[in-house]
Amino acid sequence: MSKEKDQQAMLEKLGISQLNPMQVAAHKAFAEGPELILVAPTGTGKTLTFLLPVIEHLDPELEEVQALILVPSRELAIQIEQIARDMGSGFKINAVYGGRAGYKDKQDLKHPPAILVGTPGRIVDHIERENLATAHIKTLVLDEFDKSLETGFEKQMRAIIESIPSLDRKILTSATQSVSIPDFVGLKAPTLLQFEAEDTSQLALKAVAAGEVDEYGTLALLLAEVGAGRGIVFCSLKDTLQQVSVFLDRKKIAHACFYGGMDQLDREQALIQFRNGTHRILLSTDLASRGIDIPELDYIIHFEFPFDEASFIHRNGRTARMHSEGAAYLIKPQNRDLPHYAREAKMITLTSDGKLTPSEWSTLYMLGGRKDKISKGDIAGLFLKEGELKPDQLGVIELKRDCAYIAVHRSEVDKMLKVLDNKKLKKKKIRLHLLEQKK
Predict the structure, then answer these.
(1) Which among 6, 42, 330, 358 could disulfide-bond with 302, CB atoms 3.0 to 4.6 Å apart, if both were Cys?
(2) Is 200-348 the same fold as 3-194?
């Protein structure tokens, strides 16, 4: 099969009919030269943009790591691994990152993947332990490279790059070019492609004065105002986030929390519940401003002003993406001006009665996954046939190596637990329970 047909087949598996202009330009640039710097807004499809040429240059006869993708966060590593799996290229891909059991990494690396995704600290650790051979790595991708440098990965990134003897191709991506590229990356004559948001007017920038109501009360009113949409409430500090979470719990406003101090599994499950609609509100630090796989958002709220303009841009980039409309709200405390980068925000008055409609979805956790030869189709069949769910009562299914997360209409949860728990699926006795997020 030709490369063009291979590419089209992978796109079809992702439900994509054709590449967007940025992806076409990047693909052409990388075909013409071995070094590419791609700067484009969040949500424009950068992951697919670099995965396609990475896969094109893999040797199917070589059972070694041939491409290394370095990322600044665990969530981004997981996201890239999942997208690559969904493409169905036939090449093995694995992700390694902090917070994941080391023995799982060792199992995956025993039979080396063609593509390895990882955070710099974990990759360095495997190189030093001689779990990872670098001799055959020809392609290096530094995804969200500016974030990696901002968060102190420079030493590890230098060690990794210096340990790879024969790099032929390099791709660097970012949403903004806010840092200079260090010399140790070894770029010679890279092609630079920069893309701006195609229609920034689609982002409505608004501000709400707390007035006599404190910021917490204003947030509750604002959440009721935006209604049933899906959005992120950003806090700049973890302590503030935890206080806001307590307040929302007291108000019985369902939400998921996402910040750096959480256990990896809790973070992953928070995003799963946000993606499938169990929670329509994600309360997060700037960790969620980029590099994670979440659906199109209707709004974001700056509960606390970001520390700088770059953070403001990244937060706002989570909504009004790819021709969609969205709104960014700032909550303005009494006796405090809006930051200079948000002076054009339109001041609005809230009219909501403060009531929120709860989500109609819940998440069930199922023990049993890919290693048991279980597919999403198998799970859907179990719930629709033996569980007698109607199609519109079964939501998003996320399948992992040894488990799965299934969104089910809230009214059907008890029935599913009663009818399907301990059932056999592909010779595996599955266990089901209702997933509740730890905070």
Answers:
(1) 330
(2) yes
Q: Work out the burial of residue 25: count CB atoms within 10 Å of its CB; fewer than 13 is exposed, 13-18 middle, 19 or more buried.
A: middle
Q: Which architecture does CATH list for 361-434?
A: 2-Layer Sandwich (3.30)
**Residues 274 and 323: beta-carbon distance below 8 Å:** no
Residue from 409, 382, 94 nearest 276 by CA? 409
Which residue, among 27, 54, 35, 70, has the nearest Cα to 188 in the 3D structure?
35
DSSP letter string, 198-235: TTGGGEEEEEEE-TTS-HHHHHHHHHHHHTT--EEEE-
Per residue in 412-426, pLDDT tens? 999 999 999 999 999
List, in order, residues 6 or more apart from 345 with CB less than 8 Å away.
205, 206, 207, 330, 338
Q: What pairs with residue 319 in β-bridges?
A: 297
Q: Which fold has domain 200-348?
A: Rossmann fold (3.40.50)
**Dist. CA 239–CA 218, nearest whole Å:** 19
CATH number belonging to domain 3-194: 3.40.50.300
